[in-house]
Design a protein that fits this description.
672 residues, Rossmann fold, elongated
C-alpha cells in the first residue's frame, strides 16, 4: 500500500523534531511522523510519503528547503513549493493553498504509481485532498487534531474562527473517512458540526511519542540549581505551547496561591522556544509568565527556560518521576500526547477534565482530573500527589503498567485497515440530483416530458441550480412543464430557496450569513467601476453577486483587478458572454454543499448536471457529474474522473442518459 500523509503547517522534518520552534510546530508533528514510520514497518505497507510545504528561513533548519528528505527505508518527506518561500503560520497559509494544490497535483501526475490513500491532517490539507480525489480518484482520510468549535466554546475566539469552522465543517462532510483519537472527538466534537459522519468516523488512539536523544548528555535538570533556590525539591512539570488555551498562567497562579504546594515543590514550565520570532499571542503569554515569575514570592521558585531540546524534555520527565507530577491545565485539550509521554516515564499527572485527557487518565489510571478554571483544584491535586507517597506510588505503578495501551504499531494496523476499506473513485451511489435549468433541462419538449415522468417516479431528491432569480426560475419551469424541485439554488449559487413548515418559499438565512464572510460588495463594485465592462440589468444583482456582459478576457481582467485590490471574489464566465462576480463562499457547488448537509448528505453524495461555465464548480466537486451532449466549449477542459459522464443526448434527455449510466434510473423512454 502506498500511503501519503499531508500536513501543511509547522516545521515537519526528519527526527529529531523541533517542537515549539514556531507557533504551529506542536504535537501533530509527532503524530504524523510516528504514524508514518509505524505504518511503513507493517509488512502490508510498501512505503509512506509525507507531503508538506517547502520554505526557507535563516533561523529555521535548512531541511525545510529540501525537495525530498529520506526519513527511513520506506518513509520520505516530499516538500511542495508555493509562490511564497517564507515560513507561514496557519492564518497566512490560506492564500497559498491554490498554488500548493496545483503543484501537488502536478507532483501526483508525475508519479509512476498513485497513492492508495491521502491522510489529510487539519482542514487546510483537506482542501488539497478534495482536488486530488476529483482529478485522480484517490480517497482521503481526515484527522482534525483540534477543532475550532471547541476553541470558541472556551471563549478563545481569535477573530478567525468563523472561517476555520466553515472549513472544518466542509472537511468533515467531504472526507471518505475520519480518524480521531478519542470518543469525545467522535461523539461530541465532530457531531457539533451537524454533519452526519457516524458511519465514516474511526477512533484510533495514537502511540507514545518517541524523543530520540542522548540520555547521557548534560540537560536542563543539571542546571536547575542555577535558577532555583532548592533544586532538590520535587517538580511540578508542564510542557505546552505558550498560547492562552493552554492556561499556563493559571498554573503559575495556582502554584503561588497554595502554601503547601509552594513549600514542597518547584514549578518548571517548558513554553516553546523563545527565539524572538514568536506570534503576538505567544509573546503575550510569555510576557505574562515572566511577569508572574518575577514577583518576589516566585523568584527562584519557578524555572521558565527560554530554550529546550528533546534531551531536556526526557530528563525533566525522569526528574518529575522522582516524587513530582506532570500537569496539563489546558482549558480544553483535544487529545494530550504529553500525558502518555508522562505515563511512559512513570510520572503521575494532573490534567484538565475537558477533552481527551478524560479518556487517557481513565484508561491508564495515573492521575487526577481537574477543572482548569479552578486554581485551588489544580494546586490541591498537585499537592496531594506530591505529599502522599503512597498515592504517588500507585499512580506511578499504573503509568508504567498501562501506558502500553497507546501503541503506534496498533495504530498502524488499525489505520491501514481503514485505508483498505475505502473505495477508489466515487464513494457511494448518488442520493441528490442538482440540475441546471437553461439548455440542460430546457431545449427539448420530449426530453422535458420524460424528465417530468422520472421526477414523478420519486427516485431521489432533486434541486435546480441556476443563474436565474427565484421568480425567473419558477417561470421557466412552468413554461417548460418541468417538475418543481425540493429546493431552488438561484443567482449562480448565492441564494437557496426552500419551503418552511407552512409550505411557503423562503431564503436560507444561514447560507446567506456564510456568504458575508470575506465579502465586501461596496469595495468590489468600486474596484470594478473603472473597467470597460457592461453591467447586466440591476435585477440580476444581489447582496452577494454582481453581473456583467463580457468576454473571457474581460473576466480575467476582473480577476486581476480584484486580486491587485486585495479583494476576495469568485468570478465565473459562462455562455460565452456572461460574467458573474460572487462572494468568495458562493457558487453552485457551495450552495449544493450547504443544502446537502442540511438533509444529512455531502457533496460526494450528489450528482450534478449542467451545460455551461457557471456549472463548472458543481460538476467538478459533486461526487458524480453529467455533462449533457449540447454542453458549451467551457466544459471541454473538465478533467476525466470516476463518476464524470459525458452524455451523447442533449438537454433533459442527456440528464436521463447520465442517470441511467450511473445506475440511478432505468431507461426512460423519450418519444420521437
Amino acid at each position: 500500500m502506498f500511503i501519503l500523509h499531508m500536513a501543511l503547517g509547522g516545521c515537519l522534518k526528519a527526527p529529531p523534531l523541533d517542537f515549539g520552534i514556531t507557533a504551529d510546530s506542536g504535537g501533530h508533528l509527532a503524530y504524523v511522523m510516528e504514524a508514518a514510520q509505524a505504518q511503513a514497518e507493517i509488512s502490508e505497507s510498501s512505503h509512506v510519503t509525507i507531503v508538506t510545504r517547502r520554505f526557507a528561513e535563516a533561523h529555521l533548519p535548512a531541511n525545510h528547503d529540501l525537495d525530498r528528505e529520506q526519513v527511513g527505508d520506506r518513509v520520505v518527506i516530499h516538500r511542495i513549493a508555493t509562490s511564497s518561500s517564507r515560513y507561514l503560520e496557519k492564518e497566512a497559509l490560506a492564500a497559498e493553498i491554490p498554488d500548493f494544490t496545483r503543484t501537488f497535483c502536478r507532483y501526483l501526475a508525475s508519479l509512476a504509481t498513485l497513492p492508495d490513500v491521502i491522510h489529510a491532517h487539519f482542514a487546510d490539507a483537506v482542501q488539497v485532498a478534495i482536488e486530488a480525489r476529483r482529478r485522480f480518484g484517490i480517497p482521503f482520510v481526515y484527522t482534525p487534531h483540534a477543532l475550532g468549535i471547541d476553541k470558541r466554546d472556551q471563549g478563545l475566539d481569535d477573530g478567525a474562527l468563523d472561517a476555520r469552522i466553515v472549513a472544518e465543517c466542509a472537511a468533515i462532510a467531504e472526507a471518505d473517512a475520519l480518524i480521531v483519537s478519542t470518543r469525545d472527538e467522535a461523539d461530541r466534537q465532530v457531531r457539533a458540526y451537524g454533519v452526519e459522519a457516524s458511519d465514516r468516523i474511526h477512533c484510533i488512539a495514537p502511540g507514545v511519542p518517541q524523543r530520540r536523544c542522548d540520555l547521557t548528555a548534560r540537560s536542563l535538570v543539571d542546571r536547575l540549581g542555577e535558577v532555583l533556590d532548592r533544586p532538590d525539591l520535587p517538580i511540578v512539570l508542564a510542557i505546552a505551547r505558550p498560547v492562552a488555551k493552554k492556561n499556563l498562567a493559571g498554573l503559575v497562579r495556582a502554584f503561588a496561591a497554595h502554601p503547601r504546594l509552594y513549600e514542597h515543590a518547584n514549578l518548571v514550565i517548558l513554553a516553546g522556544q523563545d527565539d524572538g520570532r514568536s506570534s503576538p499571542e505567544e509573546d503575550a503569554v510569555r510576557r505574562e509568565l515572566r511577569d508572574l515569575c518575577d514577583t518576589p514570592s516566585l523568584r527562584r521558585r519557578v524555572a521558565l527556560p527560554p530554550h529546550h531540546d528533546a534531551g531536556d524534555v526526557a530528563a525533566l520527565y525522569r526528574r518529575a518521576a522522582l516524587g513530582g507530577v506532570f500537569v496539563n491545565p489546558a482549558l480544553h485539550e483535544p487529545f494530550g500526547l504529553t500525558l502518555i509521554e508522562a505515563a511512559e516515564a512513570g510520572v503521575p499527572v494532573v490534567a484538565t477534565r475537558h477533552g481527551g485527557p478524560t479518556e487517557i487518565v481513565a484508561a491508564i489510571g495515573h492521575g487526577i482530573l481537574i477543572d482548569p478554571r479552578d486554581p485551588s483544584a489544580i494546586a490541591d491535586a498537585c499537592s496531594a500527589v506530591i505529599e502522599d507517597a503512597a498515592l504517588h506510588a500507585r499512580f506511578q505503578a499504573a503509568a508504567r503498567a498501562h501506558h502500553g495501551q497507546y501503541d503506534w504499531t496498533r495504530y498502524a494496523r488499525r489505520s491501514i485497515a481503514v485505508y483498505a476499506g475505502l473505495d477508489r473513485g466515487m464513494r457511494r451511489r448518488p442520493a441528490l440530483l442538482a440540475c441546471d435549468i437553461d439548455h440542460t433541462l430546457t431545449g427539448c419538449i420530449r426530453g422535458a416530458e420524460a424528465f417530468l415522468r422520472w421526477r414523478r417516479s420519486g427516485n431521489m431528491p432533486f434541486v435546480v441550480a441556476t443563474g436565474r432569480s427565484f421568480a425567473d426560475a419558477r417561470r421557466v419551469l412552468v413554461q417548460w412543464r418541468l417538475p418543481e424541485p425540493d429546493a431552488f439554488i438561484t443567482d449562480v449559487g448565492t441564494r437557496i430557496m426552500r419551503r418552511d413548515a407552512s409550505g411557503d418559499w423562503g431564503a436560507c438565512a444561514d447560507f446567506a450569513a456564510t456568504l458575508d464572510i470575506g465579502w465586501d460588495l461596496a469595495a468590489v463594485r468600486a474596484a470594478l467601476a473603472p473597467l470597460d465592462v457592461v453591467s447586466q440589468p440591476d435585477a440580476t444583482a444581489g447582496l452577494h453577486k454582481l453581473s456583467f456582459f463580457g468576454t473571457a478576457r474581460d473576466a480575467e481582467a476582473i480577476r486581476d483587478t480584484l486580486r491587485i485590490a486585495g479583494l476576495s471574489a469568485h468570478v465565473i464566465f459562462s455562455h460565452g458572454r456572461l460574467i458573474d462576480v460572487l462572494a468568495p463562499g458562493g457558487g453552485k457547488a457551495a450552495a449544493i454543499d450547504a443544502y446537502a448537509r442540511s438533509i444529512g448528505l455531502t457533496l460526494a453524495d450528489c450528482v450534478a448536471a449542467g451545460d455551461s461555465g457557471n456549472d463548472l464548480d458543481m460538476l467538478e466537486r459533486c461526487g458524480a457529474a453529467i455533462v449533457v451532449g449540447n454542453a458549451g466549449s467551457e466544459l471541454a477542459a473538465l478533467t476525466p474522473r470516476p463518476g464524470l459522464y459525458r452524455a451523447g443526448r442533449h438537454h433533459a434527455a442527456g440528464v436521463l442518459e447520465g442517470l441511467e449510466r450511473l445506475g440511478i434510473t432505468t431507461d426512460t423512454k423519450i418519444a420521437a
